[in-house]
Amino acid sequence: MRRAALEIAAVVLVAALAALGLPQVLELFALINATVFVSMAVLALSLGLIWGYGGILCFGQTAFFGLGGYAYAVAAINFGDTTLAVPLALAVPTVVAAALGYLMFYGRISDVYMGVITLTTTLILFKFANSTAGDEWNIGSAPLGGFNGIPGTPPLNWPFDPASQLAPEQIFVVAVVCLALCYAAARLILRTRFGRVAVAIRENELRAELLGYDVRLHKLALFAVGGLMAGLAGVLFANCVFVSPTMFSLSYAGQVIIWVLVGGLGTLLGPVIGCILIQFLTTRAGSFSAVDPNLLLGVVFMLAVVVVPKGLLPSARTALVRLAKRGGA
Amino acid sequence: MSLTRRDALRTALLAAGSTLAAPAIMRHAALGAAPIKVAGIHDASGGLDIYGKPMVATLEFAIDELNAGGGLLGRQIELINYDPQSNIQLYTQYATQAATKDHVAVVHGGITSASREAIRPILRRFRTLYFYNTQYEGGVCDQNCFCTGSTPAQNVQKLIPYALKTWGKKVYILAADYNYGQITAKWITKYTRDGGGEVLAADFFPLDVTNFGPTITKIQAAKPDMVISALVGGAHISFYRQWAAAGMKKQIPMGSTTLGVGNEHILLSKEEGDGIVCAFSYFQEVDNPLNKAFLEKFHAKMGANAPYISELPMRTYIGVNLWAEGVRRAKSIDRMKVIKALEGGISLDTPAGKTTLDPQTNHTTLDVYLAQVENQAFKVLDTFPDQPPLDTQSVCNLIKNPNIDKQFVVDVKI
Amino acid sequence: MDYAVIVALQILAGVATLVIVSLGLAVVFGMMRVINLAHGEFLMLGGYAAILAHGHGLNLWLSILVLPPIVVGIVGAVVERLLIRRLYGRMIDTMLATWGLSLAFIGGVTMLFGNSVTGISAPLGSFAIGRYHTASYDLFLMGAAAVLSLLVWAVLKLTPAGLLARGTMQNAEMAASLGVAPDRVYAVTFSAGAALSGLAGGLIAPVSGVLPTMGTAYIAKAFITVITGGAAMLTGTLAASALLGSVSTVFTFLTTPVFGEVALLVVAIVLLRLLPRGITGRFLRRAL
Fold it and tell me: Which member of A91, A274, C78, C193 lies 3.0 to 4.6 Å from C28 by CB, making a disulfide possible if both were Cys?
């Protein structure tokens, strides 16, 4: 318990420093970029939690990401005020995750087949969202916009005060706070009995079941929590970019998996670091005209698998341990 | 020993990583007194690069031409090219970067209407001048945004009467499923009805659809006199292929509001492309002395890599020159002064004919050409000089309401 | 009546396309449990090989049928040797590596060829049923799908090499102790799967747009078809293609291509829910 408390305290400290310090140091555009990275990091964290600790390979975490974003945009435009839009935007992906989880886990579906079902779900949402460009596709007063998405996504405003919207600097602070909260929540969940059972299920599902734990319920609950976090990431993303069908796309779905793998499957901070690093590389690669960005990224991934197969964070830890031993001995 | 190979790979990874970490935005400038910065945001990779790469080529050509002539206001121009890789999220990021970090004097960019609507509010908010040089569906009313491409009142309005006169009265529309396709389909419907024709059906396809088999069967069942296509992007080229493969090319004639812009006429074979009619404000085959001179210089510079010049890259070239003229008249790069100068009525003779900026709408009055695909090139059938942007003019008046910021959509039920 | 015949032909063509596109992935995943996310790019490379060869004057049929499988087979062998071989048994790592490979291929091809390569027109012209015209190439694709499936079945069931491959797939250790080198079997299988993907790319090049990104349109469908098919590699893929392809085409006729795709995806989910181990997890379990 002490170790967890220390870890959470350290992360909160770093987050506080980032939230307060970076807006002073970084220029506006870098800050907005950073906000995007942070929102993606929350998404990476959600998958890191359910996959690394729950053993649930969800290939379609972007489904909840996009649902959170779209729910937020539609609600905010209809209500005229983002205060109630946020809880709604968190509720929708959680409910959908619970429903999908029920479908899968109570049907005893696992590993590759679950990957396919979740991938299919996000693709269905992607194709559906892409086809909503016509006039008839409105929810209340919010046009769904099809391929364009909803460029006029309203940014967050102060609770119950629609007139005063948050500035980009403040949205950055909100994003960092959310990331820290999600990390703390994930750590605490893993410390509880529920979390430990979830890990046991990942280790050996049959054994956990034979010991009397309700495997399906545990997986369902963890999956729903992951959906909630992904939805939160979607809300943050909607605030610093805007809502569009690419949130559901195959390429984003694959990228989330890459972030977790590169960062380190089985850790919480690994996915966050992997996400920010790769996002940074991707944006840089776009300003590079000499080599095609895809080629560059592809080579980096392949090298990463061969050189740091356990992911960056675990490899870094191992390397540090090795250095410490060598220094000590 | 496997350790050495591992080390080598690790070094390679580090090298790749550190190369990327170094700032490497491509700069296109000469050193000297504080250069004027211009940003270009075009997709040079991803599915939309068939449109973006030629636009980047003419953008660089235009800037180089200006710099060779002494630059603007005695300063050289520095071009910063951003490649959003056909990803709208990167569009917004780069637009914000151009406006808030690079503090450029003007942004030329945006290809799809989706990308335009993503960056237009950002550039307006951060007070950076924006030129959108792509032909689109019309209706944008924004003092900060100058749209130099042709709009439906200029291109569709020339294509449809020709089609109705030559082919018949029953029209079947195929369009890309996003705002451009949806709105253009409405305009096609309007002009068809105005000309006494009838729209049998309008089908919309998201940009990644490649299987048009059932659609082709449905078209045959409907028995139209013609097919008008507003399909966009690399995947939609399959339609033209499958259409010819089904033998329909000889049965039903086709017109398009988009074919040619992405070099489709070169990608398609003679059997697949011949006979398709299009209307744009420029074709590379347009015959006038300015165009000849431009093409000579352009091909001399690009050599074998010279892309086909369609309306989009030509309008980019003209857009840069319009902005440059505005800067010269304003004697400054200050945004409001340049806008005032641009809205003072500027007219240029260009390889595409005469282009005049319309102060009421920040759009352009231009020459429109009707052409037909023949042997993987275009044959110009007819020329319509000085066509004003009537569609946007009917709803937008920036002289009376300079603070308006909206895209108007024509009210037509298909 | 004519309309019904044409619709039926379209359905068969849709199924055939799905079979052709999925067969390469089925071989690689079914035999080796390797999730090759670069399958779409093998397809793309095959397509590019076909149109480049034809652009340089090679006979159309050679360009579509002979060159792509050879070229992509070689590429597959190289990829297997350099990358996949290190990652056997590590399903997740192969996913990451092959995703990187797919990005690298897309980037490389974009750098080399851009997007302005002339395509191939579909050969064989068209034929008419009543007053409806349709491409004869569709019939060719149906034939090709049937021939390919038969070929795969024949090689696996009737040749010694196929026997070795199936044995290694079932129990690699046993096969090794009987004197078979599993490494060699895997290498050949992967190359064969890659060759099939390349051939698929060549076959669909005349009717699809050949772009660096064309692979992404097919990878998801191929993946879903193979997995829904279940453990029996060939029968499963055929069964799943038949079901999903028909549903997709029928819905495309009734509504729009988008809902045709959505219908395919929904049916896949329902199928997996009812048959958690895929179609051949329950039926036809002993089939190949």
Answer: C193
